Amino acid sequence: LQAILDQFQAVYDEHKASCATKTRRERKLLSWIHNLLGMNVTSKYDDYETWDDFSTLFDDPNYNRSLRELQSRYWHPHHPELVPSIYFFGYEGSLTEPPCSEMVSWFVTDSPMVAHRRQVEQLKRLVFTHVSPDCEKTSVHHAGQGVARPIQDTFRRPVWQCTILDFPADVDREVVPTSSPTPAPPTSAPPTSSSPTNTPVTMPTPVVVSQMDPIITTYVPTNGPTNV
User: Fold this and answer.
1) Which helix (H) or strand (E) holds 109?
2) Of 2, 27, 64, 120, which one is least surrounded by beta carbons within 10 A?
């Protein structure tokens, strides 16, 4: 999880530095105009002689090297720490932000991912305070740090569950040795091939767990790992 957060943090920092560079450039232009026109270089709120005197991440001589080192790292999208289970609950839902179209199939793993409190706070900061290189806020979440759309009624929408009975994992499937001897057929039966054959198995279809009311999942901040 931390490897993914580090990658997002690098993009977050790059966009923030681009925004700061844009702001500095605009302030320098305004300061130049004030000096050119002989206007006051100070106001009640700003000092136009010094307000563009700040550095950004791009001014760090080691920035490019650090970025290359970070980009050379890889993480596995199906690592057990990220996807602790291949089984899940599912339901047909909608987008959590405008236009809130009902066109999304939601899949929720049946086992929680473990994250430290600091990682949860870092993820919230990356999502809720991100700005584009043009200094535009990209999050549609409100100040209370919740989703833009309130929790909706399920309207008795079915929730289904995929379990090991629906789709056994490779480690759970019965292994049939290819070199195992085949028992001799009965004398009254016609000769059969000595090679083993596979018998097709019909798996049951996913069952509807329930038509449940909305479930709100929260976490209680602690000093240790937190399930989210």
Assistant:
1) strand 104-109
2) 64
Buried b (16+ CB within 10 A) or exposed e, 28-66: eeebeebeeeeeeeeeeeeebeebbeeebeeeeeeeeee
- Kindly report the pTM of this predicted structure: 0.62
Please give the average pLDDT of every successive group of 10 residues along the chain, which has 228 residues: 90 92 87 74 65 78 81 82 91 84 91 92 90 88 61 86 88 57 52 46 48 39 43
Strand 225-227, strand 114-116: pairing: antiparallel
Q: State how beta strands 225-227 and 207-210 pair.
A: unpaired
Measured distance between the N- and C-terminal CA atoms of the chain, rounded to whole angstroms: 12
DSSP labels, 61-89: TTHHHHHHHHHT----TT-TTT---S-EE
**Residue linked to tokens 């709100």:** 216
